[in-house]
Prior knowledge:
Helix content is 20%, strand content 36%. By secondary structure, the protein is an alpha+beta fold. The protein starts with a strand and ends in an 8-residue tail after the last strand.
Amino acid sequence: MKQTALNSVHSMTAAKMIEFQGWQQPAFFSDPTDEYHAVRGSAGLFDAGFLGRIEVTGAGAEALLHSLFTRNVTTMTEGTALYGLLCNDSGFILDTVLLFKLQPEGPGMRFLITTNPVSTDKVLGWLKKNAPKNAVINDLTGAMAQFSLQGPLVDTVLEALTGSHFKKIKQKHLKTITLADTQVIITRTGFTGERGYELFVPAARAVVLWDALLAAGKRFGLLPCGMTSRDILRLEAGYAQYGIDLDETRTPVESGLMQVVDLHKTFIGKDAIVKRASEPTQSKLVGYELYDKGIPKLGGIIFSENREIGSTTSGNHSPNRRKDVGLGYVLTRYSQPGQEIEIEVKDKEIAAKIVELPFYRRK
């Protein structure tokens, strides 16, 4: 398994380690429920080093990304970020990615892409396959570490670390600052539904910054958090996880991601997506809420009046709802909120209903 720059720190803290999409990651450092509540109530710090980080530079960088990305790259200003998709010629999703436009360090523009770990090699290959000679592609996954600082008190934690007033950053914006004597690219993004930041730091300085953030945030309730609480948080926020809820068999149409597809521009996969969007959609990704206890595994069958209508993808207990919830694909005619369904859980059928997403919305 691959290891992040913080692996030795996790081992020393006796974190419970698991495999996630080829990476050894902490499942939890303490009680996962405590970690969850830290993010919802104060702040939590995640090791996001398992995400891929790919740099694209040069005179042809913008044109390359504009031809592949489902969003309009040409309108991006330096210091901004966009969430979108990379699709193949048939309109199927290769990955969900965040694209950052950074300050250039040489001729041409400079971009950073973060990928899901299961897709990093695939995205690298896709970029290189379509790249002109004047676009340079570098895999920075090993050289650059990534943290996710999430929760309502994240600005307070950063102020404590900087020793001065931390200037808040707008959503989907980024800048370079100094934290713990380390140059850090910090961006206002996240995967939890809370206010938060992603921090990019040289791998050699990862341990120093991790320890500094935990020390600065301790008195505010900051906790190191693992993949168990991350999965609950992202599910409550209604975020689909690539490799679980999304893969190369899905398009943006049935996955509910057309809001990050700009059909006013040309990109690989557009024609196929337009065609699919013009036809009746056979299935849709929906959220569901169970009436009784039970967390479905990936691929659990969804029924309506004894008819199989779809299957589950994600499932977990929602502390916010105090119920078990999840995501899954169902036939479109059964996708409306309020639709009564049954879900297969350990050879039993548990009553549930389709509900609007997200399960949790920050006030």
